[in-house]
Amino acid sequence: MDDILRQEFNAGRELFLQEKYDEAEEIFRHVVEDFKRNRRADNKRDRRRDRKATLESKFWFGVTLSEQEKYDEAEKLLQQVVQGRDKSPGPDHKDTLWSKYYLGRTLLDQGKYNKAEQIVQQIVQREGTVDQNYNGMGEAKYKLGRIYYEQEKYIEGEDMLRQAARELEKSNGRDNSETLGAKDLLLATLRKLGEDSEAEKMLSDVVPRMESMKVIVDEDHEDTSKPLDLPQALDTDGPLLSSTEATAHQGLTGLLDSYFPNEHQDPEPYTDLTIRKISMLLEMFNIRWSKLPRTYIILRIIGYPDLLDRLIDFGFSDYWFPIGEQDLQDCLEPPIRAAFVNTQGLVCTNLLDLELGQGGQHCYFKQGEPLPFDYKAILGTGGYGRVHKVVSHTTSKEYALKRVHRNTASTGWQESAITQFISEIEILKRLRHRHIVKFVGSYTDLDYVGLLMSPVADMNLKDYLGRVAPSKYPELRTFCGCLATALEFLHARKIRHKDIKPSNILVNHGNVLFTDFGLSLDFEDADGSTTTGIDNGRTPRYCAPEVAELESRNTKSDVWSLGVVFVEMTVVLKGRTIQDMDEFFEGHGSGRKYIRTNPAAFKEFTTELEGIGESTDNRALDWAAQMLVVEQQKRPTASELVTSITSPGEEGEGSEFCGICCVSADAEVDEFWD
Prior knowledge:
- It contains 29 helices and 11 strands.
- By secondary structure, it is of the alpha+beta class.
């Protein structure tokens, strides 16, 4: 690897370690492609050296893609690395073994359990002959145990997880998160095998060690903490059960009893942590009951625990809290209803305040208070934060959680990030539209400010355009009208998005939604929508000329950005790719890839597109041409654009460019969310 490529490679790896995966991906992609173009053939030594460097670059590239859940490409790259390293330096070398580990993890995350099993087994089967510098055998056995668990191969899983727990305890210590994670998964496996006595014994041994640990996905070592994503993971900020409790009570019934007052005691409010403990204990008795721990607590305190099945059959859940007597009149008798409602305050915690939004009230979690969800995956990484897929402990619903670190003392840039994020929260609270992500709740803890949103989308529009099949083109056409309608909604509420681009547009089950309002401007109290100055964070490909030139801008700047998106959607509808568009621009006009910097190429490219594909799709090009006029005042407003899209064309076509959800005037109705 020459000095320049080595510098690029090191820069990419540094970005990876900083969790800036988008930027790292771009660098690693360039390094790998550069090796393809510039293979040297001077002598065998050079070829061997280049081959090693190529595999190293592909390995980091593949792991970076896997972190972003771009599994198809990651899988192919890591397979190439495994095949190459199996030949040299050989199957026992640590680099080969780690390549197989990450390939197995990528396969597992896709649910390809059989393939994942075959790959990770290759690591475990080489125990005794592996490179002495390889220290990942315990992690590999843990991963294989998880694969067996997912395949319901509980007997094989029990043996593998016992080995993993022993080896991880020996290498990492008894209180290490990986050690405890392996034991927790072993505990779950024993439950599946009906070995309850050993599971109970293990519970009393493992749980006290959680006292000073937070066993969730460790963002700094996410690869080794992945097994803790399982539902059985002990996701707490403290001990599930203290060792004194374990010795004071014999059996799980005694442990459960310890959380309830006797006849001489007054009940105290329950914390989220205690409710979580009770839920996990209930899981060993009755799975149905474990899903409603708050309801169980209330019924037990008022003396009617056996009524829980009746409430479950009625459709009741912990998500109903807080509740009034009128909501229970069909399932509980009057005296019981009154007692139930009067007791619910014991279990209405910050968790419920967060998920129900409480009219936009921000929630605060103190030190030691657990957050009310499990981390499941990373959905994306931005300039100042990360978006996680999380699952609520209360409702089992999936949400997108965007977080920004509160460490504002480090740099002025971070202070700006927090300010933008708080602005995004305040803007989203005001918005409710079928084509805009939904605000669920927000919170602050000691480390982060968090924003909970819905839905967890299938993908963003950028990825969608790269993989959409022709059979989905009718769906893609409707995005024009739906996005225009959403933009009209924003502008009518005095909000400019300011960063419209495909990666900030989500696609979820055929529905398209604007997201990422971190740069948005609320001009409700301003003299008008026009502003000047620098727009930090703008995206050059999609920003309007006036934004790039730091001139006065207004809502028409959003219209330009959406116009570029319209062009890219039409490119795909015409059977071409965004890469085709970029290559055309590079070979025509000024040679630049952006529409605002290469208007001559845009004009030629539009003419070429008009002559291919469906002629009706040329309507989208007509709208885009109007939206991409350099003079702001000549561009249509979002409202005018909606009128154009929903009006019949010259040949009578019309509604195919707008979903039925937005053809009528009541596009703000909340049917999408209900």
